[in-house]
Amino acid sequence: MLGKTAGGLTWMFRYLERSENIARLVEAGFRMGLTHSDDASEWESILATAAVRDAYLEHNEAYDVPAIVDFLLRDPANPTSVLSVVEAARNNARLVRTAITREVWEAVNECWITLHDLLARPVRSADLPETLGTIRQKSSLVRGALHGTMLRNDIFNFSRAGTFLERADNTCRILDVKYYILLPSVSFVGSTIDNVQWETILRSASAQRAFRWLYGGETRPSAIADFLIFDRRMPRSLAFCVEKLCSNLTYLEAEYDQKMPSLEMTLAFREKLQRLDIDEVFKIGLHEFLQSCIADNNALAHQIEQDYRFTE
Amino acid sequence: MSQPPDCFDEMSGAGDATRAPYRGYSGWLEEQDHKLLKKKASDAEAFFRRTGITFNVYGSDEATERLIPFDIVPRIIGAGEWRKLSAGIEQRVRAINAFLHDIYHNQEILRAGKIPTQLITQNDAFLPKMIGVSPPGGVYTHIVGVDLVRTGENEFFVLEDNARTPSGVSYMLENRETMMQMFPELFTRVRVRPVSSYPEALRRSLTACAPPCAGDRPVAAVLTPGIFNSAYFEHAFLADQMGAELVEGRDLRVVDGRIAMRTTRGYTPIDVLYRRVDDDFLDPLNFNPESMLGVPGIFDIYRAGGITIANAPGAGIADDKAIYSYMPDIVEFYTGKKPLLKNVDTLRCSEPDSLNYVLDHLSELVVKEVHGSGGYGMLVGPAASKKELAAFRIKLMEKPSNYIAQPTLALSTCPILTRTGLAPRHVDLRPFVLVSPDRINITPGGLTRVALKKGSLVVNSSQGGGTKDTWVLEG
């Protein structure tokens, strides 16, 4: 396989994952606006999670909800707006057209066609839930086509690695932006505001149902952090993503019969997570820990790029 | 069905009786409901859009990717007609390869005085660096598209040859695929020769010309300028269908005297490169130094026999419009026989007498730029306004040698499905020819392009043309 193709596959699935993540963030913000008076600071956190707060302020003067939603979903000036990333995903799919099945290509192409139409004009607030649902569904359909039609070979493993690199980064960011409300010291506060914020975090990771199911009615903030970092049953937790990356890179090592630094790094990342539990994380400092994980994940992405010659 | 006067309709011929090749189809068509056909036509469009069979349009902001309109009425060629056509095409393509070999070696045709020497030496499409180079297998044009038009029952003309990187073959294949999906029963009633083996034949043709350094299973790759090229869909399609890698210049480099592609495991040599990049952009060290699309040094490797490039650099001298008017002589010079396929009478505006004639008859002629393509920079006299004629006259007089002129041909028509029923539209045909060291393979049919505007003679997709599935009947 061409190095460029491996890179294209990884990025295609990173971008698709990102489109879904942005939709989830907007949905969490939207839900909060429904149940509580619009709190612009919550939207500010959402922009921070999506790593576009500065970019937003370059183009806008204040935190205005419709403008933020528009920036996150449609703005071509925002390289991580849903519209931008779906276009980038499709361009990468075009680049790797010979590596993917017709089903996967058509799913991406249709994702782009649908969202291009859907996001051609600003989304009315009444249409927002349906639009966000469509964004998530279209990305799921690509994943479904990948699972249903692709050989389990290097192509598949590079694609999956893209998904999990992006997801690990996203989960860390969701937690990091709100780390201060998850600290054990605030666990007894339990004010309504905190409840709302916890809910936002869980929704941003599509984890509210799973969390309630596992923890019953008890909402301890530290449990939320524990769940999203360490619970390997949870498909969006950091531990789950790292575990999957280990298996993708282990496959590639076996397939290519070449020892690669990227696998060493992933194994070390996994070991770090296995060594620690949530209490120790709080001792280190939740924010510091999450920052180190984001850095590890970035370094890993970079190493994979080098090991498999994505670029010259 | 109304019909423009003096025009040969391929379905109804000169009179009202359906021509033989269309009888089977016509019988089926009479049983169909017009509404249902219209629905099928819109299904086809949705299918093309979903599959991403699009081409990129340069210089337009909106909708940079467009569909080429597809018409669901097939263009049908009888078995006997096709036999005659393919004999003519084969003869012409053999002559083109012999001509290229000669031009880059002994230049006997120039010595014999059949073609003015300066027409070759001062032509941008002529690559002096190819002199003395013998491509592996002796093949210059592995893939050729021969553009044909028809004006009567037995009147076929070659409009132009495409000896560089002819495009459109993916549409030939996808059009058939679409027709078979939409009208499976039709194909059980009318026996049509299949086209689906083209990618496999292309692969065999390319690898048959692999250089001596290649192993038992030569590695082929398709070189594309990238995803923003107008024909990118086709490049990806062909690579996919052939099971070849789709590479860009930035994936390739010279490694140990070979051209190698950067894979996830390291650099792997390529034996045959089907390039869809023009000569000028192929190698910044040997040709255009500004090119970002090519591979530095590839031409040196090619000359040393380390890789096969298809089509060979410099092959464009054979399809140059200024050379076109000499094609009958070229065919006769190399095959020793009269050409089976006719050329359109062509006036070279570089010759003073011809220029005067062209200026006097501008409103009757088609005038083309010698190096133009895609229907750009072309004047269709009878369809042009007074203003357009006057503007073109000035351009023509400024640089006469840049133009050739031809009579306006009454191109044959084929019916298309319109909102109100069938209506005749002008068509042309591009058969695709594969050349190997030992044989010439012509896929039955080719790409039919159709001018969708009533009365229009311009079939290019960049100018609002569409395509049709092209059938050659069994028999």
Q: How many strands, what sense, and barrel or not for the largest sheet of chain B?
A: 5 strands, mixed
Distance between the termini of chain A: 15 Å
Return residue spans of chain A where pLDDT drops below 50 for at least 5 consecutive residues. none
**Derived structural class of chain B:** alpha+beta
Largest beta sheet of chain A, briefly?
none
> In what range is the share of β-strand residues of chain B?
15-25%
Radius of gyration of chain B: 23 Å
How many E-type strands of chain B? 23
Helix content of chain A: over 70%
* General form of chain A: globular
What assembly state would you assign to the polypeptide chains in this entry? heterodimer
Helix and strand pattern of chain A: HHHHHHHHHHHHHHH
Distance between the termini of chain B: 29 Å
CATH architecture of the domain at 212-306 in chain B: 3-Layer(aba) Sandwich
Given the helix and strand composition of chain A, which structural class is it? mainly alpha
Strand order of the largest sheet of chain B: 3-23-22-19-18
Which bin fits the share of residues in helices of chain B?
25-40%
Overall mean pLDDT of chain B stands at: 92
Question: What is the topology?
Answer:
The complex is a heterodimer of chains A (312) and B (475).
Chain A: H1 3-35, H2 40-49, H3 53-59, H4 65-73, H5 82-95, H6 102-118, H7 128-149, H8 154-177, H9 192-204, H10 208-215, H11 221-230, H12 238-256, H13 261-275, H14 278-284, H15 286-307
Helix pairs in contact in A: 1-5, 1-7, 1-8, 1-9, 2-8, 5-6, 6-7, 8-12, 8-15, 12-13, 13-15
Chain B: H1 23-30, H2 34-51, E1 54-56, E2 65-67, E3 70-77, H3 79-103, H4 108-111, H5 117-121, E4 143-152, E5 155-162, H6 169-182, H7 184-189, H8 198-207, E6 220-223, H9 232-242, E7 245-247, E8 252-255, E9 258-263, E10 266-269, E11 272-275, H10 279-282, H11 298-303, E12 308-310, H12 321-324, H13 327-335, E13 342-343, E14 347-348, H14 352-360, E15 365-369, E16 379-380, H15 386-398, E17 403-407, E18 413-418, E19 421-430, E20 432-435, E21 440-442, E22 447-451, E23 465-472
Parallel strand pairs in B: 3-23, 5-13, 6-7, 6-11, 11-12
Antiparallel strand pairs in B: 1-2, 4-5, 4-20, 8-9, 9-10, 14-17, 15-16, 15-17, 18-19, 19-22, 20-21, 22-23
Helix pairs in contact in B: 3-13
